[in-house]
Amino acid sequence: MQKKFRLGATSYVFETDLVGNAQRLAGIVDDMELVLFESETHGTNFPDADTVARLNELAAKYQLTYTAHLPHDVNLNHALWRARNERAIAATRALKPFAYIVHLDGRALMQNASAENSARWQTDAARALSEIIAQVGDAARVCVENVEAWNPDYFADLVEQSNAARCIDIGHLWLNQRDPLRELQTHLPRTRVIHLHGVAARDHVSLTHTPFEQLQRVMDYLQEKNFDGVATLEVFGESDFFTSRAAALRASRLA
Hints:
- Helices cover 44% and strands 18% of the residues.
- By secondary structure, the protein is an alpha/beta fold.
- An 8-stranded parallel beta barrel has the order 1-2-5-6-7-8-9-12, surrounded by 5 helices. It has a two-stranded antiparallel ribbon with strand order 3-4.
- Helix 1 (18-25) packs parallel to helix 2 (49-62) and helix 9 packs across helix 10.
- The model has no long low-confidence stretch (mean pLDDT 94).
């Protein structure tokens, strides 16, 4: 059986920059997630025009696509985060990313999940998400990701109403002891990106930390449903990446 999905890696597999990672990953994966940051202490890795040109050359040569992970949670009331996310979108627009991965800021829900507070949060989050969609220009490429800190059920209606897509992070579901198959059965038709990583003392480690039968259940389901989006191995470092890739291919019955 040939895989339908595009296998992805992060831009932090090798200890080099975005272009260096893309050069070394091309031919090994089909997509690279640009893990973007901008801060006072660490500077920024937003690609400049020369970097974008080189990334596009690699994309054309190797049929490589990119997903872009925005640097901050989406929050209308945080001016700095809004500005950085806007700059990240502008810096990557010429790469025509397959998807923009966004986190909604759920801190208000974590502090108080009352019905009144949840309704207020959903109103604010809907406005924030619509702003990102307007900047990207295509709701289908804006993928709202479930994070480990709060229940993704809170944003289910927002994604539907905005026509945005989903990024289902399987590792976060495992971390929270939620069954990924339930999420996939409900939301896969709207899902553009899957994140895969193991869970040990922390998450985002090699898939070898995950019982193989759990991983195989997920991969079998993606194959069964002909998932044709990106499945990103969201781990960092060579060892975690290559062991995760071997596990994912084996679970997909491709190796």
